[in-house]
Every structure is written in structure tokens, then in C-alpha cells.
Specification:
mainly alpha, 56% helix, 6 helices
């Protein structure tokens, strides 16, 4: 049986009943397709451990140059440069140039909050009562 045709008993409705008011409320609150695509792109960027190291380095270090980020993350400068180009293209990181130097930082406080919440979530230990 294919995965697509398999539905576990606890995943299906025992009684087919639709709550039209709830469906209208949820559908009305649903972001547009473009916003969903952009959000999926951001979470996709965050799904790579190497990119996350670079982002967390900027979260902890503030504005940093490529060589400092590379040293902090244990990556090559080339790999960090590539990562930073990708993160800039998706508005996660911004750059400030000073002469021949380029300094990178997280684009805005929303990126900071997202990372802080994610880190808080993974370090969270469930209550003993929940087990």
C-alpha cells in the first residue's frame, strides 16, 4: 500500500462532520500563497546546519566580517561567503561595506526572534507530567 493511500486510524475523522464557521475563520486567516512560499524559503534556509551556524554566529557576534564568521563556525571563508550570498538574497542577512571590508549582520529583529524562539524550543525540556 502506498504512503499516499494509507491513512492511520487516528489521522482520519470518525464522523464526517465539517464545522463551516471554523473552516471560514481558518481559511480567512491563512496567509497568501506568496507569503507561504517565502516562509517556506526562510525555513528551508534554516534547515541546513552550516547555514544555521553562520546565522547563530551573527546572532551572538553581531556585525562580523567573513573571516571572523568562518573562524567562529569552523568553515572555510569560501563556504561562508557562499552562505552569506544566499542569506542576503533571502533578506536574512544584510551587509555594510567599509572600504574593502564587508560586515554582515542579521537583517532585522524578526530574524533574531525566530532564532531565539527556535533555540529556546530545542533546549526546552518537557514537564514530567507530560510523559
Amino acid at each position: 500500500m502506498s504512503r499516499a493511500s494509507y491513512v492511520a486510524a487516528d489521522e482520519s475523522c470518525a464522523v464526517r462532520m465539517v464545522d463551516p464557521d471554523r473552516v471560514v475563520t481558518v481559511a480567512g486567516a491563512m496567509p497568501g500563497a506568496e507569503s507561504i512560499e517565502e516562509l517556506a524559503g526562510v525555513f528551508g534556509l534554516l534547515s541546513d546546519p552550516g547555514r544555521l551556524r553562520v546565522i547563530i554566529a551573527l546572532l551572538e557576534g553581531g556585525e562580523m566580517c567573513v573571516c571572523d564568521i568562518a573562524a567562529a563556525c569552523g568553515h572555510s571563508e569560501s563556504a561562508v561567503s557562499h552562505t552569506l550570498r544566499l542569506l542576503r538574497a533571502h533578506h536574512v542577512v544584510r551587509v555594510r561595506r567599509s572600504g574593502r571590508m564587508a560586515y554582515h549582520r542579521l537583517d532585522d529583529s524578526h530574524v533574531r526572534m525566530l532564532l531565539d524562539l527556535g533555540l529556546s524550543h530545542v533546549s526546552h525540556t518537557p514537564d514530567a507530567e507530560a510523559s
